Amino acid sequence: MAAPKKGRGTSAQSKPGRSLVLILIAIVALTGGMFAAGHTTPRLGIDLAGGTSITLRAKADQGSAINKANMDTAVDIMNRRVNGLGVSETEVQTQGDDHIIVNIPKGTNSKEAVQQVGTTAKLYFRPVLASEPSGGAPEPSPSTSSGASGSPSPAASPSGDQKASAPSGSPSPNASATSQGRAVSEALKADATPSPTGSPSAKPSGAPAAPSPAPSANADAAKLQAQYAALDCRKPAERAKVGKAGKPGEPTVACGEINKVWYKYVLGPAAVDGTEVKSARAIFDTQGASGWQVQMDFTSSGAKKFADVTGALAKNQQPQNEFGIVLDGDVVSSPFVQQAITGGQAEISGSFQQEEAQSLANMLSYGALPLSFQKETVTTVTAALGGEQLRAGLLAGAIGLVLVVIYLVAYYRGLSLVAMASLLVSAILTYVIMTLLGPAIHFALNLPAVCGAIVAIGITADSFIVYFERIRDEIREGRSLRPAVERAWPRARRTILVSDFVSFLAAAVLFIVTVGKVQGFAFTLGLTTVLDVVVVFLFTKPLMTLLARRKFFADGHKWSGLDPQSLGAKAPLRRTRRPSGPSAGPVDPKGA
Questions:
Q1: Roughly what angle, to the nearest 10 degrees, separates helices 17-36 and 415-441?
Q2: In the beta sheet, which residues pair with residue 324?
Q3: Residue 491 and residue 466: Cα distance in Å, rounded?
């Protein structure tokens, strides 16, 4: 039974080339996949590529508590909003109990992503009870348009839509659409777009209350009128107080900016909730002069409410035939209507830019955040600063690597070639896998991740040193190199596995309990620890088995690092046994 075991063991030891071929195939396959995917460099994090880092603090709303479920929902919505703008590689993650960190790399639509990432996107359609320019600017004369469509009325816009006045007479619909900013039109023509089928709504259907006349003389109305009279929307501090504090079921005051002029409004209770907008999309009007538009589809209950409120508003005079589209407390449009808008479809049109229309449609499509968020810090990170830090980190890594190589050459001599070859294989695998993980799981190489890779140099070199010392111990005991390589491996293997397990466990715990860039360090440390095991098992050990058959190493050349004499093992001790029995004579202590 002993002979077959020896045969199998000898066969396994005599074919180390299989392991070397296996790891070579893996390197070629991964490198080929890297080039095939079109990604030849790792994806850089915000600290290396540049971009914007935002810290958001959650604030509890009425009926919404700050808890893990709401925070996770907010992270998911923010991710979908930013990705909907075409900004990839954005990091959105919670920090602590009430903070969210958003890292947006520099690139296409990154400015729009920064603007809307923490926007609550709470949308309400409110009747307009009164409006005028803040600060006493003259009110432009209202314009009308022929036909049944809802023509645009003065509206607020980040891009500076105009609140224009029309000359006497009735302007054409095209002129009205292009000069007076955003508007909500009537439903799409039935022959162009079919009416949407009814879908369940989060709120019970029912006709909304008709818009009230000007605030009455009761106490609440008097307070609201006083707020309206004293409101100066040109002051950021006053704008922050109004609108966002208004409850959906109560009248409120609000502000809206139009062509760099701020207007103030008195708005009635919300008639339609933004949650009853089933979908929204940005399209370009190729058949008219409206340009970019945002088309909205309402739910079944939302369509009925919208038809009821527009029908009631059409009976009033300006400005009480308008309704304000209020997004996060700001009036972004206040169109007027001439008749009920039915069919469950409407559009916001006017002087939209493409990015602006897509941004609004994106927020409406992906819904409101469950919590309100305040931007605590907004930090712009330049690529130049990250580049300097990266160069400093790479310089530190290069210095560390050179010191390791010097130590290996001075102490292990010929064995240092095995160590350096193993380090090279580990570096290739680390680079290729990091590059592939960028598009696969959005892994980004940041400065802490670079630090983790530098630390891994020492971890990998430590595994080689453990194995080399076990081989040397076997040679000191009088064994030749080939059996020493095989006998040292089980002992070294256990030590390497335990050491790497501890390193990987530390990296895993660090990755789980931390957030942000520290996770990059933990992830890189864990990845390189796993690769260390792969390289030692599939490359270092088989390579040592092959080199043990070479005369340079097998004969213990003084530059091989395995010279028995320099290791303290005298050659005769490896071939001579001590005599046993009473007839044994004295032994020369010098071994002569």
A1: 40
A2: 126
A3: 9
- At residue 284, the 3 state secondary structure works out as strand
pLDDT at 586: 54
Q: Let me know if 99 is exposed, middle or buried by CB neighbors in 10 A (0-12, 13-18, 19+).
A: middle
pTM for the model stands at 0.54
pLDDT in tens, 539-591: 999 999 999 988 899 888 888 888 888 887 755 444 445 555 555 555 554 44
Residue for token digits 């980040």? 158
| Dist CA 564 CA 479 (whole Å) | 9
320-336 CB burial, b ≥16 within 10 A, e <16: bbbbbbbbbbbbbbbbb
Axis crossing angle, helix 383-412 with helix 447-476, rounded to the nearest 10: 10
- Give Cα 253 to chain centroid, integer Å: 37
Q: Does pLDDT of 28 surpass 90? A: yes
Q: Which two tokens stand for residue 506?
A: 């530390």
Distance between CA 127 and CA 546 in Å, rounded?
A: 85
Closest CA to 569 of 467, 474, 470: 474
Give strand pairing partners of 104. Answer: 52
What's the mean pLDDT in 408-419? 90
Q: Mention every residue, 6+ apart, whose C-beta is less than 8 A from residue 531.
A: 426, 429, 430, 433
Asked if residues 107 and 444 have their Cβ atoms less than 8 Å apart, the reply is no
| pLDDT of 7 above 70 | no
Q: What would the DSSP string read from start to end of 414-438?
A: THHHHHHHHHHHHHHHHHHHHHHHH
Q: Please, are residues 156 and 336 in contact by the beta-carbon 8 Å criterion?
A: no
Higher pLDDT, 136 or 184: 136
Residues in contact with 239: Cβ distance below 8 Å, sequence separation at least 6, in sequence order? 233, 255, 262
Task: Kindly report whether the peptide bond that precedes residue 142 is cis, defined as omega within 30 degrees of 0.
Answer: no
- Mapping DSSP to helix (H, G, I), strand (E, B) and coil, where does residue 285 land? strand
CA dihedral 468, 469, 473, 476 (to 10 degrees): 80
Q: Are 464 and 540 in contact (CB under 8 A)?
A: yes
CA–CA separation, 363 and 326 (whole Å): 13
Contact residues for 198 (Cβ-Cβ < 8 A; gap 6+): 299, 300, 303
Whether 359 and 302 have beta carbons less than 8 Å apart is answered as no
Report yes or no: 195 and 343 within 8 Å, Cβ to Cβ.
Answer: yes
CB 48 within 8 A of CB 434: no
pLDDT higher than threshold 80 for residue 242: no
pLDDT digits (tens, 9 = 90+) for 107-123: 655 566 676 676 666 77
